[in-house]
Amino acid sequence: MICIFLFLCLITVTKLEDPCFTTKLIDDWRRSVANAAITGVCDNFLEEGWYRVISCAGELMPTECPIGGYRCGTTSPFWLSSNNVTGSLYPHNGNTVNRTTCRATFSGNCCDQTIDIRIKDCGCYYVYYLKHTTGCYSAYCFGDQLPCPDGLTSSTGFTPGCVNSSCSGIGKLKEARPIRCYWSILNEKRKKKEFSTFCLPLWYLLVSLIG
Ligand SMILES: *[C@@H]1O[C@H](CO)[C@@H](O)[C@H](O)[C@H]1NC(C)=O
Ligand SMILES: *[C@@H]1O[C@H](CO)[C@@H](O)[C@H](O)[C@H]1NC(C)=O
Ligand SMILES: *[C@@H]1O[C@H](CO)[C@@H](O)[C@H](O)[C@H]1NC(C)=O
């Protein structure tokens, strides 16, 4: 019986240690490569670890150099380099890959510094193993869209597909996080809860039956 119990524990631990279940989130649309307004995003103090990106501006690290910097809400943005990479930059089928990010500077250098990161495919999303940058303002880019301009709106509140809404006031909500984003976070929380409230008692029951 102890054997079975240990085995099930091992499965649980493995599941929780999977980087796909990370609780570290990066949630900041200002990191979009389309954002050319400098707003002081800095990853100097970013805690090393696996991160999931949640943003209606997009959740992928851009793969083209933001030439001249001053993008992604920072002075010197880091982007995903395809140098020395054969095949696809992003992993498939639950795989993890090692990749290099490059820092783009205001002087036009696209890779004056590199930071090695890891990317894991989690099916519907990716997680990124990130280390802190050195010095402000320097940060990782994520996404390539922007909030809808004043007076326009879309289902996410972000480009593309912003349309003129006749309802006055809707444009003012654009800074608030769109419902779709809340939904995806709630959904994650629900899944985790189901995992512990449904699966664990079932296992205990199984163990006590067999034992
Ligand atoms: C690619 O590999 C070369 C030679 O090993 C190295 O000097 C360069 O920094 C690498 N570039 C990137 C972006 O990793
Ligand atoms: C990827 O990086 C990790 C951590 O730095 C290292 O342990 C691993 O060997 C690397 N894998 C490959 C294929 O280079
Ligand atoms: C949206 O439509 C209204 C009424 O048709 C118009 O007055 C307004 O200028 C439009 N706003 C934008 C941002 O296009």
Please describe what this structure looks like:
Helices cover 23% and strands 19% of the residues. The protein has helices at residues 2-17, 179-210, and strands at residues 25-26, 49-53, 76-81, 96-103, 114-121, 126-130, 138-140, 152-153, 163-164. The strands form two sheets. Strands 1-2-6-5-4-3-7 form a seven-stranded mixed β-sheet, with no helix packed on it. 28% of the residues are buried. Mean pLDDT is 82; it is low at 168-183 and 191-207. One 2-acetamido-2-deoxy-beta-D-glucopyranose binds at residues 98, 118.
The coarse silhouette is: globular
What is the chain-wise order of helices and strands? HEEEEEEEEEH
Number of H- or I-type helical stretches? 2
Proportion in helices:
10-25%
Question: How can the largest sheet be summarized?
Answer: 7 strands, mixed
Q: Give the integer mean of the pLDDT values.
A: 82
Output the strand order for the largest sheet: 1-2-6-5-4-3-7
Uncertain runs are: 168-183, 191-207
Beta-strand proportion:
15-25%
Ions, cofactors, ligands: which are bound?
Answer: 2-acetamido-2-deoxy-beta-D-glucopyranose
Organism: Mytilus edulis
InterPro entries: D8C_UMOD/GP2/OIT3-like
Protein name: UMOD/GP2/OIT3-like D8C domain-containing protein
Keywords: Disulfide bond, Signal
